[in-house]
């Protein structure tokens, strides 16, 4: 298993592409993951499909609905993760009911066994995470909690306190989805968060262009890209998504000297 | 994670399992609710509207012919069907619109299944001059066309939900997504005792007017508490409202009736307490209809209002603590009770409430003629006439 620490470097922003496990097909998702790694992903974020993903917009909802129809159950997702965890750190995005249904401890044992480095659980806010965080910590699985533009400074500090991987900074009050440019206020939020937490800070939700990724990389330790990539997979498969991700990688590398 | 007594929980049930973006709004809502629920002006305004706008108190009616027919306990009907807009839903929407108004929210959103809560929300939004958007599963907008038109006539926008199973649970998802994106100026009027804290407690408090009236009316009519109160449970707002003042009180049986649909064994039902497992849906830990992997399953009931794959966390608590009993009634039994009440008492109940009527027969016979049984008749049946006609034709 590769840990999250090594993925964040001082000289450039980590690139964190997202894929829905089981989309476009069970086999196709493996190709997507491979394409991401080949394009220079620093961390893979693998989404466990859930029937009721309330933090996600239509693009990712469509992929999870398709993935569930394809039969992407939790065992498949863990197996997919295990296939890449040796090469690149893997973070699972999973809704809490999928964790709870398996049993928190068993889920964590299996995730750790698959080499999963960290978890993003969008519907497990800091206040509900206490006990689970301890169980995860005991197994070396990092927690990557969300902060939002609506989080107060006190909450950001509290969330920073429970984060053991990175803090997932939500760029906009809204659900996942491709947006034009970087949402106003995202850079300011990043600054507000970075002043208050000691773990790396990654920005996600709505980063849909190379320009937005570069702009965000000036302040963020990591860039999470989901909906745009899932759109590209839908249009042209793993190859199209991987090609675009490589452009982002190059632009981020080019930007590093100037802005950071 | 169970058995922890903390705010927002009923025993091990409830909590606040939502994306971080909503936490601030929920804290704000909780603070506003704490501030206003005992505020004399707020209470006075709510009471005045309950009286003049809703028509409260609703009667507690002695069902003489039904009592004779069953030959058991004396049966009383709490007539929530006579409340404005035709169901108990208005008690909650009225309370929440007052709160939204004081919080300075200009926009109201809500989910609806059959459309009763949507209509009750559109009604109070009109009364307070708020913009109103109601999310409704595409499937339901077709099945309940009349309620769509009612909402539109009241000035609300109805947005059909095309995601997932296109029914109530998906409408809730979509309303939460809207709220996440518009949380600054928008209040979400949730329709039942579900969702993240403080909703289950707040909605319960607004519905407890039912139980308080039952208590006073029972004393007046027969000089003591009822021996049993029977109410239907989908997510459970009418039942919790009727039960609440009586919880833990000696000699009062509280009986919640879930939808058994085609039968619990068939998997096509809406009985989350009878057939669900502990899990998280729409922000709360409770009993949920789900697969082994934790994917939420579709509920089924002939009554759209009971067609929800989870149950309010306080009901989960009452069941597990033995403070209330929960049973279930099939589609067929509910339809029989629907017709029965129409023909014996001249009242067509909502198909939801017909579940309570159906089970009350057993309770009345068991308790015998000295006892008094109250059925919470949560809504009227006009909305169900087509569904009933179709189903009864097929029986």
Automatic annotation (TrEMBL), chain A:
Q: Which UniProt keywords apply?
A: Amino-acid biosynthesis, Aromatic amino acid biosynthesis, Lyase, Tryptophan biosynthesis
Active site per database record: 45, 56
Q: Cellular component terms, GO, for this chain's entry?
A: cytosol
What SUPFAM superfamilies does its record include? Ribulose-phoshate binding barrel (SSF51366)
One Pfam family name is Trp_syntA
Pathway(s) where this gene product acts: Amino-acid biosynthesis; L-tryptophan biosynthesis; L-tryptophan from chorismate: step 5/5
Q: What is its EC number?
A: 4.2.1.20
Top EC class per UniProt?
lyase
Similarity-based family:
Belongs to the TrpA family.
Q: What is this protein called?
A: Tryptophan synthase alpha chain
The organism of origin for this protein: Rubrobacter taiwanensis
Gene symbol of the encoding locus: trpA
UniProtKB/TrEMBL annotation, chain B:
**Stored InterPro entries:** Trp_synth_b_CS, Trp_synth_beta, Trp_synth_beta/beta-like, TrpB-like_PALP, TrpB-like_PALP_sf
Has the keyword Iron been applied to this entry?
Answer: no
Gene Ontology MF term list = tryptophan synthase activity
Residues with the modification N6-(pyridoxal phosphate)lysine, per the entry, are 89
Plastid keyword on record: no
Q: Which UniProt keywords apply?
A: Amino-acid biosynthesis, Aromatic amino acid biosynthesis, Lyase, Pyridoxal phosphate, Tryptophan biosynthesis
Q: What class of enzyme is it?
A: lyase
Which Gene3D superfamilies did the record assign? 3.40.50.1100
* Pathway in which this enzyme or protein is active: Amino-acid biosynthesis; L-tryptophan biosynthesis; L-tryptophan from chorismate: step 5/5
The function of this protein is: The beta subunit is responsible for the synthesis of L-tryptophan from indole and L-serine.
Q: How does it assemble?
A: Tetramer of two alpha and two beta chains.
UniProt record similarity statement: Belongs to the TrpB family.
Task: Write down what this protein is called.
Answer: Tryptophan synthase beta chain
The organism is Rubrobacter taiwanensis
What is the primary gene name for this protein? Answer: trpB
